[in-house]
Amino acid sequence: MSQYAYYPGCSITVNNRAYDTSTRAVCQSLGIDLVELKDWNCCGATAYMAVRELAAFVLSARNLALTEQQGQQEMLTVCNACYMNLNKTNRYMAEEPKLREQIGAALAAGGASYSGSVKVRHLLDVLVNEVGCEAIQARATRKLEGLKVACYYGCQLSRPYPTFDDAEQPSTMDRLLEAVGATAVPYPMKAKCCGGMVMSTSEEVALKLVKGLLQCALDSGADIIATACPLCQVNLEGYQGRVSARFGSKLNIPVVYFTQLVGLALGLTRQQVDLGRELVSADRALAAYV
Amino acid sequence: MAEPGNNGKLAPAGARIGVYVCHCGTNISQTVDVAAVAAFAASQPGVVIAREYKYMCSDPGQELIKNDVAEFELNRVVVASCSPLMHEPTFRRACAEAGLNPFLFQMANIREHCSWVHTDKTAATQKAMRLVEAAIRRVVENEPLESRQVPVTAAALVVGGGIAGIEAALEMADAGKKVYLVEKEPSIGGHMAQFDKTFPTLDCAACILTPKMVAVGQHPNIELMTYSQVEAVSGYVGNFKVLVRQRARSVNSELCNGCGLCQEKCPSRVPSEFEAGLGVRKAIYTPFPQAVPRTPVIDRDNCRYFLTGKCQVCKKLCPREAVDFEQQDQLREIEVGAIVVATGYQVFDASRTKQYGYGELDNVLSSLEFERLCHAGGPTGGEILLKNGQKPESVAILHCIGSRDSNYNQHCSRVCCMYSLKFAHLVREKTGARVYELYIDMRAFGKGYEEFYQRLLHEDVIFIRGKAAEVSNVAETEAERGKLIVKCEDTLLGVVRRLPVDMVILSVGLEPQSDAREVARIFSIGCNSAGFFTEKHPKLAPVSTPTDGIFIAGACQGPKDIPDSVAQGGAAAAQALSLIDRGQVVLEPNVSVIDEERCAGCKICISLCPYQAISFDEARRVSRVEEALCKGCGTCAAACPSGAAKQRGFDDRQIMAEIEGALAEVVALT
Q1: Positive or negative, the Cα torsion across B309, B313, B316, B319?
Q2: Of these four, A56, B120, B300, B544, which has the most CB atoms within 10 Å of its CB?
Q3: Which residue of A213, A216, A219, A243 to mutate against B (max B Cβ within 10 Å)?
Q4: In this predicted structure, what is the pLDDT of residue B185?
Q5: Cβ–Cβ under 8 Å, residues A72 and A35
Q6: Does residue B670 carry a pLDDT above 80?
Q7: Confidence class for position B546, pLDDT limits 50, 70, 90
Q8: How many alpha carbons lie under 13 Å from residue A166 in its C-beta half-sphere?
Q9: What is the pTM of this model?
Q10: pLDDT on residue B11
């Protein structure tokens, strides 16, 4: 059984709980042992990095230090922002001796240290490259046949670091969901920005981005959007009303986590993958699979 | 000038050494305290004179050595300067002119091995002293040696039948030398044969290339081997043995008259490599009508007969009974004195840049595809058409795809700006469509290139300074519907723009051939980090390689346009000719010898020698080295259990003395 230090991150423990629940359920079902990192803290995401860079790096580094301290080699996260920031911290610490020294001093003040040994993995990477699409296909008891999914990766999963997928046109989620029977529709906007935190500062800009993503998914004939990022999920789902009002076209499509779809295919129940919390109900799109 | 001393160490008997420490302008002196190194050298036993000088390789530098040999009766010389690759011959010659055996000279590399790779001056100076002491201790042990001369085979091999290889082959053949031209494709011509027009003059590529191809095919001194590859090279400068595999054409070129009937009726249709995939060819084919030679080949991987055992239509139709399914690959060994490697380039695979939709979206073309689209002999007869058969109303040309991009290739491919301008001209001329050029920097460096750029500025082409970010078919407005939308930052306006167009041309860069590293290994030459072959010196020896007798020309050395490729082909030919016409080459005397008194006749050396240079004298029960065959690799000397095999210039005493010198400080500390 493969074991990972599980780093949930702030957002999925507060307003994106379905992602956390479905991740744990899918991992349990596939024999992936998630040991939640003890005493973890924020990764330093969103505005933090731009305002106080060093502090943000130290926040991330503390989580990496805890992982080492708790005897784990690999850390698993499902949030794209956490994934990007933790990887960025790892890279910068390896490449910038001066920064490494500063972060090291901050960690030391709290009695911690980090040697740089932890590998940060995204669940999508682990499912496709460790467990493997074929193995998951073999375990799928309820094929998602007929479900047309727009696979939406967001921007931070593969940029700036294309660690396990193409930077511009990633395909791992497409392959994973196709393996469990769904049809991944061609979705050229799959790695475009959803606006992220800009939604709270320049809503006009972000709404336009969300509109493009939703419109493209609908034009591609998708029944549902699957995402790998909590913030993307919030922006795409939560603002459909405002987008429709602003642009005068009715845009309505459910947005769920890829883990929820994989979970259903693995035979998990609606409750086990925490469906039902959506603002745009996925019930109709998923009626045949629950 | 530093005063001689002896540092309390024992002076080696009879040695009178001169040491010269070079500044190399500031290349060495900015990181190494040259004066301190010279003073250190002066304190070494046996050193009679130690000097520092700005440029030891200059005439006055060499004069210093010559004068000192006479004045101080020097019998050993050490120069601490650059890599021996370039100037060891220079200083050996200076020694010889001063009456000293040139092998009583030793070089210490304090530039590439020291000043260029260090920043700490104190530590670098210490290291330079160690390198100098190693050279001093070794030169004491050096013995006078005599160089060998061997005759040169008066024939040359050219590898690659693109424009650079063609030029090299013709030059040498015209000078009366036998030339073997090996090309892996069924025809010579290379990439140039695929082009429509050439920049900046817009003359037709075929009109200037095909006469040269024909000349190669008919030249009495050129033996053309197409559909062939070099598998192995042995020997050395002036005397190479080359193993060439001639793949089975399945068509007897003695009988075939190139009528083309076989190709007409062949039922197998295969995407044509020559048409960059835009057209089809048959399984039995000549790549293009002007191919040299005209004899077709059967592509066995796609031939119905070879796949199913049934068909033979070509064989039945051939009026000359030239089709021969039984033909086998031929292995030929040829002997040449010089080799010109001109294996060319490949274009960047645009499907690696997913953001431009290549391979996914219709009417997104690579530049090579567009060349074929423009070409009178291409799939549309030279008409620029969209996939639906309509003429485009707007075309965007995207520069630097796969070039100047840290994700793919860091280098500038040099030709793309100019061929992109040529494309813009052709689109304007043939369709009148609106043309956008999206460039990072416009690089118009060659003769007539800037003028060509100025001309295009007046042909109503729209130049946008900014690299395209993506090409998509996701429309945001009605005007964009059904179009390809090119998104880019216009850095002169400072805005992000979306350009709806009908056709996108990706100006892909030039890369080393995918098998460049393997080819480099076969010819014992080097590659840079990108995989382009490395010249002996980037300025002064651009077509030579560190392996004597092997030259490089054209885009295998780095991205190049046609004029530069032709110039290099000619230059490589001139160098090869000069080698062949010298008639003799001087070989390093560092061959092995076997001391018959000590040889126990165990024959270990015979089994290890990679050059079959050692034979066994049954009468005397000893091994014997054939000097002409020995390449001085030293394997036998290292393996000999009785110490009978020795390599001249590299015997144990000399190597140990050098090591002791390098480690003298460490030894002193322990």
Answers
A1: negative
A2: A56
A3: A216
A4: 97
A5: yes
A6: no
A7: confident
A8: 15
A9: 0.84
A10: 56
CB-CB contact of B560 with B554 (8 Å): yes
> What are the C-alpha distances in Å from B357 to residues A175, A214, B442, B487?
19, 21, 24, 12
Q: Tokens 């920064």 correspond to what residue?
A: A99
Nearest to B473 among A166, A169, A188 (CB): A188
In this prediction, residue B5 carries a pLDDT of 45
List pLDDT tens digits, range B151-199.
999 999 999 999 999 999 999 999 999 999 999 999 999 999 999 999 9
Strand partners, B404: none
* Closest-CA residue to A263 (of A123, A129, A165): A123
Q: How many whole angstroms separate alpha carbon B421 and alpha carbon B215?
A: 31
Strands (E), chain A: 2-6, 32-36, 74-77, 119-122, 148-152, 183-184, 224-227, 255-257
- Cα gap B443→B448, rounded to integer Å: 12
Q: Is B76 helix (H, G, I), strand (E, B) or coil?
A: strand
Predicted confidence at residue B592, as pLDDT, reads 94
Of A167, A168, A188, the CB nearest to B474: A188
* DSSP count for chain B of H helices, then E strands: 17, 34
Which chain B positions have a beta carbon within 8 Å of A219's beta carbon?
Answer: 474
With a cut of 90, say whether residue B6 has pLDDT above it. Answer: no
pLDDT tens, position by position, B242-280:
999 999 999 999 999 999 999 999 999 999 999 999 999
Closest by CA position to B12, among listed B138, B105, B96, B145? B138
* Amino acid making up residue B2: A
Return the residue matching tokens 């090119």.
B486
Residue from A163, A169, A207, A243 whose CB has the most chain B CBs within 10 Å, to mutate:
A169
Residue A189: its chain B contacts at CB < 8 A?
Answer: 472, 474
- Say which of A168, A212, A216 has its CB closest to residue B355: A168
State yes or no: pLDDT of B1 exceeds 80: no
> Residues A243-280: pLDDT tens digits?
999 998 899 999 999 999 999 999 999 999 999 999 99
Closest by CA position to A43, among listed A24, A27, A63, A28: A63
Q: Which ipTM was obtained for this model?
A: 0.80
List chain B residues with CB under 8 Å of A213. Answer: none
Could you tell me the CA-to-CA distances from A87 to A38, A80, B108, B244, B530 in Å, in that order? 19, 10, 45, 50, 27
Q: What is the DSSP string of B229-257?
A: EEEEEEEETTEEEEEEEE---SB-TTT--
- Chain A contacts of B364, Cβ < 8 Å? none
Residue type present at position B80: A
Nearest to A168 among B354, B474, B476 (CB): B354
Residue range B552-574: mean pLDDT, rounded? 98
CA distance B557 to chain A (A): 30
Alpha-carbon distances, residue B77 vs B54, B420, B455, B461, B503 (angstroms): 18, 57, 61, 65, 68
Q: Which residues pair with B614 in a beta bridge?
A: B625
Q: Residue B475 is encoded by which pair of tokens?
A: 């429309």
Amino acid identity, position B561 = D
Share of chain B above pLDDT 90, in %: 92
Rounded to the nearest angstrom, the minimum Cα separation between B355 and chain A is 6
Supply the mean pLDDT for chain B.
Answer: 94
Residues of chain A with pLDDT under 70: 1
At A205 the pLDDT is 95
The answer to whether the beta carbons of residues A125 and A164 sit under 8 Å apart is yes
Token pair 């073999």: residue: A138
Residues A131, A137, A142, A145, Cα dihedral to 10°: 130
* DSSP per residue, A19-30: HHHHHHHHHHHH
